[in-house]
């Protein structure tokens, strides 16, 4: 009897700690990781703004071999969406905001497991790019969720680091874009760069030609 009573007291204390401690914990969670890529922002943006290319560098691309995936919407930019469903869960990720060569924001939907927002922020760093991948979620007052939030950095952080390293390898292994030379105006080589005065002068007979012909005519007469 004493054992049962002691067990009940222990359970009450644990519940009090969980509930009371949960009230003191943050209702939001933020995780972020960064890496430098030796390519300009435009080349990095071209990859992260495309849901069709996410699995080329995603740290979860081999997480669930049973998962069926579908990409919909435009090839790049707002509206691009990736959905998945498999034995280890289902969800979707959709691009909801972009700032060209600077930001891509996605909305994550994990169904009953909640929603979150993820950003890729790009900034020029010398001739390269500094990219920061972040994750933000709110627990909407869920006390157990707040306790779970304490583990989010250790759970998601390493995955973000791995994904960013794969993104770096992917972008840097792609041949750099070669600047195209400016277009030139085609035309006869003799006319290039000539002024109207020079063109008019070219059409006039050289000095002495008329006089020579005149003199020749007098002698014939």
Notable traits:
alpha+beta; seven-stranded antiparallel beta sheet; elongated; Alpha-D-Glucose-1,6-Bisphosphate, Chain A, domain 4; 221 residues; single chain
Task: Give an account of the 3D structure.
The protein is an alpha+beta fold. It has one domain (18-173): 2-Layer Sandwich (Alpha-D-Glucose-1,6-Bisphosphate, Chain A, domain 4). The chain is elongated, with a radius of gyration of 35 Å. It contains six helices and seven strands; from the N terminus they run H-E-H-E-E-E-E-E-E-H-H-H-H. Helix 1 packs across helix 3. The chain has a seven-stranded antiparallel sheet with strand order 1-7-6-5-4-3-2, covered by helices on one side. Pfam families: Polyketide_cyc2. Residues 211-221 have a biased composition (Gly residues). Residues 174-221 are annotated as: Disordered. Residues 196-207 have a biased composition (Low complexity). This is SRPBCC family protein.
Please outline the helices and strands.
Elements: H1 2-24, E1 28-37, H2 41-48, E2 68-72, E3 81-86, E4 89-99, E5 103-109, E6 115-125, E7 128-138, H3 143-149, H4 152-173, H5 196-203, H6 209-220
Antiparallel strand pairs: 1-7, 2-3, 3-4, 4-5, 5-6, 6-7
Helix pairs in contact: 1-3
């Amino acid at each position: 009897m004493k054992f049962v009573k002691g067990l009940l007291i222990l359970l009450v204390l644990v519940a009090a700690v969980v509930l009371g401690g949960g009230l003191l914990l943050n209702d939001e969670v933020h995780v972020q990781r960064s890496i430098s890529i030796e390519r300009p922002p435009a080349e990095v943006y071209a990859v992260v703004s495309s849901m069709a290319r996410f699995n080329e560098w995603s740290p979860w691309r081999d997480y669930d071999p049973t998962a069926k995936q579908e990409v919909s919407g435009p090839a790049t930019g707002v509206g691009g969406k990736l959905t998945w469903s498999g034995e280890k869960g289902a969800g979707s990720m959709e691009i909801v905001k972009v700032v060209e060569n600077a930001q891509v924001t996605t909305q994550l939907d994990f169904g009953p497991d909640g929603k979150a927002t993820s950003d890729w922020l790009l900034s020029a760093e010398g001739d390269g790019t500094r990219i920061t991948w972040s994750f933000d979620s709110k627990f909407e007052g869920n006390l157990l969720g707040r306790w779970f939030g304490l583990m989010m950095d250790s759970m998601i952080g390493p995955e973000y680091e791995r994904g960013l390293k794969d993104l770096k390898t992917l972008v840097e292994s792609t041949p750099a874009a070669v600047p195209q030379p400016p277009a030139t105006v085609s035309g006869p080589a003799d006319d290039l760069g000539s002024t109207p005065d020079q063109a008019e002068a070219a059409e006039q007979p050289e000095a002495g030609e008329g006089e020579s012909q005149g003199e020749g005519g007098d002698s014939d007469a």
